[in-house]
Amino acid sequence: MNLLLYAVLTFAPAGSFIAMAKALEWWTRGNGATRSGAESPSPEIDRLVDDLRRLERDYCRIEHSDLPCRAARLHSVSLAYDDTLCACLTALEIPWSGRPPFDGVQRLEMEAALAQRGVTW
Question: Which superkingdom heads the taxonomic lineage of this protein's source (predicted)?
């Protein structure tokens, strides 16, 4: 009996969290309804813009910290930012050239092209 009670107390919270997560996912996706036609790229752009915001915050946080290997961390975040910029430009079908890592001028031109299309972060 104690073993059964232990199992219930152990697995019930995890099961309820999984059930709530599935219910929330079902709710946010439109109650399981399928959409007809082609979906707009807006959700992808929204996700990419959120990634740009997060990467910009991470860069500032690392820049002002005293973490070990700070230069390597800044370089990694900078490369991720450049890749996300390229993904945004590709999603909006804006032509771009070059490969990451970009210098400051190239990055600024890419950000300006996105801003001209109304993408801000």
Answer: Bacteria
